[in-house]
Design goal:
It is a single chain. By secondary structure, the protein is mostly helical. The chain contains nine helices and no strands. α4 runs antiparallel to α5.
Length: 297
Amino acid sequence: MADTGKKKQPAKKPSSGGSAAKKNQPAKKTGASRAPRAKDSQPERAAVNRQTMAIVFAALSVFLFAVAVIEGESVWNAMHNFMFGVLGICAYIIPFVFFYLAVIYAKDRPGRYTTANIVFAAAVLIMLCSFLHIVRNGADYFTANTVSMQIRQAWDDSAVRKCGGVVGALIGGAAAKLFGKTGAVITVLILLVVALLLLTGTSLPAIVSIVRKPVKRVSEITGERMEENARRREEMRLRREQEEKEEKERAGENKIPEAVDGESTAQDKKKRGSKIPEIGGPADVPVGLAEPPMPVI
């Protein structure tokens, strides 16, 4: 029994537990050290994704611009006609919208998710197409034609490239049917401005500051022009008064000689009248020429 007790003593379970604890401690440190690396990799991945989207949008803008400008043949010509049939003249604008998206993603300031940017860009295009469709046609056109007829005519007029395409006929035609031409123009313009603000990420204070500068400049220019016009009117008034004064002075100088001449002629007439003998009165006859008296018979 004593031997068995001695054999059981060398068992050192706590030491094995301690070594296991020591082995587990470095593992905890390595896990803690890896956590910051995972956090640091998230911004890097986001930046890589943004640059990828910038490249994709830039490629799309170039491709769509080429399709819009070049008619081409076969499938290329079909895409060309489809773009103008759906968007009308806005087919020239859609490449620049994608180019704008490429620029904001390349500068690492998209401001929101990619889906939201695409939705806002699509809203800008739709409102532009609708505005062109409403402005191009008169009020009688919307009264006489249904929305389906407007869509059909917009697709047929796609070769003319003056309308907003099928999209403009669908949205703009429906708005004109509901609100009339004037109300549809106002509604579409408001929605267009809202879509542009959301796409560009412009805030209302920024808009106020942007609008304030040109308004202030216009008011300054208007004030300067008003002052200039007032100064010119005052100069014209003074010039007119000066001319009238000079005319009066010239007229007064011309009247004085006439009065002097009139007085001299009157005096001459009096002198000449005093020397003329009266009819039946004695005449001044020289002595040598006096007739002799008649003899008395």
